[in-house]
């Protein structure tokens, strides 16, 4: 199996300004200087983490999907991140997984952050997404999902190789972000990526970033502080397979189902 080159953008999102955010993120994507397979953007990357869904939502096939399709085709890479979507009179915090050929899948955030009233505005997702891309199996989740290990749990029958979280995770809970991201990598014997934002939103909430990429032992391959940045790294398939052979803990995992 081939290695996988991944890129992520940690940006200071502009509050409720989709055009400005798409332009900002496009500039960072343009600065990726080598071929990459996957480009990951933060949670609600067009608006910041907002409960004003009626004013901000767009249909799935709206301008942001068109923009993501252009980026994916130009870079020959999957582009993913979440945005506010309206569908059948419901609002979703929806991650789009957009391939270079223009096709796409989606994942709706399962765990809605009730402390901000997200559960009162958005409809929760009911199905996890595991995508196969260039020989890798990838499970994309969203922010608060990080706190729920059962939903993130790897499947011994069809294990994923990379677990990723797109987020607007505030600085006040920075220790939790760092700790749980490492835990999810270790317990699932998978590479893990967390992609956050930086800056200050209109509610005076500070975001310190701390986006990171970790290996299956919970060791950092890259971690960034609170600066705006774009990062590209290559994940080594041989490292993952060798570790899973030496330490096949997934074979002893408990089987279970989730009631939705």
Give a short overview.
The chain has 260 residues and is of the alpha/beta class. The protein has helices at residues 18-30, 53-56, 63-75, 118-121, 149-152, 174-188, 237-246, and strands spanning 4-10, 38-40, 78-87, 90-98, 104-108, 131-133, 136-142, 162-166, 191-195, 198-200, 206-208, 212-214, 220-223, 229-235.
Count of spatially separate domains: 1
Termini gap: 35 Å
Number of strands: 14
Are there runs of 5+ residues with pLDDT below 50, and where?
none
Q: Give me the Rg, rounded.
A: 17 Å
Number of helices: 7
What is the N-to-C order of secondary-structure elements (H for helix, E for strand)?
EHEHHEEEHEEHEHEEEEEEH
Give the name of the CATH architecture: 4-Layer Sandwich
The CATH topology assignment is Nitrilase/N-carbamoyl-D-aminoacid amidohydrolase
């Amino acid at each position: 199996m081939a290695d996988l080159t991944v890129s992520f953008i940690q940006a200071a999102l502009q509050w409720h300004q989709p055009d400005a955010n798409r332009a900002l993120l496009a500039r960072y994507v343009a600065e990726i200087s080598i071929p990459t397979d996957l480009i990951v953007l933060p949670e609600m990357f067009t608006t910041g983490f907002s409960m004003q869904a009626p004013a901000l939502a767009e249909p799935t096939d709206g301008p942001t999907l068109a923009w993501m399709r252009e980026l994916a085709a130009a870079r020959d890479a999957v582009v993913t991140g979440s945005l506010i979507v309206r569908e059948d009179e419901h609002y979703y915090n929806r991650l789009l997984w957009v391939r270079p050929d223009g096709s796409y899948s989606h994942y709706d955030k399962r765990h809605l952050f009730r402390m901000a009233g997200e559960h009162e505005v958005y409809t929760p997702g009911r199905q996890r997404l595991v995508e196969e891309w260039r020989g890798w199996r990838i499970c994309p989740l969203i922010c608060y999902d990080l706190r729920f290990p059962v939903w993130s749990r790897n499947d011994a029958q069809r294990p994923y190789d990379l677990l990723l979280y797109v987020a607007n995770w505030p600085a006040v809970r920075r220790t939790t972000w760092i700790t749980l991201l490492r835990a999810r990598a270790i317990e699932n014997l998978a590479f893990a990526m967390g992609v956050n934002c930086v800056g200050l939103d209109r509610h005076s909430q500070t975001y310190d970033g701390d986006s990171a990429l970790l290996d299956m032992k919970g060791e950092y391959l890259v971690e960034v502080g609170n600066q705006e940045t774009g990062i590209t790294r290559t994940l080594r398939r041989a490292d993952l397979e060798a570790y899973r052979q030496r330490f096949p803990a997934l074979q002893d995992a408990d089987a279970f189902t989730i009631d939705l």
